[in-house]
Amino acid sequence: MKLLALLLFSLAGLPASAESPLPGGEAGAVASYGGRDDGRGTPYHVNKVDNICGLDEPRQLTNPAAVDYAALLGATPEMKKIAKEKIDPTSSEGITLTAQARSKVLSACESVRQSGGHCSVWKTIRRRDKKAVSDVTDAVKRLL
Fold this sequence. Notes:
- The chain has helices at 2-12, 69-74, 77-84, 92-116, 137-143, and strands spanning 30-31, 44-47, 51-54, 64-66, 120-122, 125-127, 134-135.
- It is an alpha/beta fold and 144 residues long.
- Helix 3 (77-84) packs antiparallel against helix 4 (92-116) and helix 4 (92-116) packs across helix 5.
- The two termini are 21 Å apart.
């Protein structure tokens, strides 16, 4: 169980896909443009590497959703197999199973994004005005 927790904790910080650094900054730099809802900025604070699917430009976001990515990974049969059979996550089998788990989570997130009318799904996103961002973790989990 400790192995699964450690694995999920270490994977939670990894991007869903390989991302290039933000222009003029470090990879994973936080993007927040203004904070105005008047079209000149965005009301969202995001880290581009936390984008799972959909739009990833903060100024384009209109109806984003958030998920508990670590919980979703842990709910996949592949990650359960890694924990149950004590497979080394850095072994070829562990890497393959992790990639399959991430692919399933991505596919389920994309399906929920489209059906729910969301512009994007994020591991972490918050609004400047402190209003809640829709959490679709349970809907995604049902598809896994």
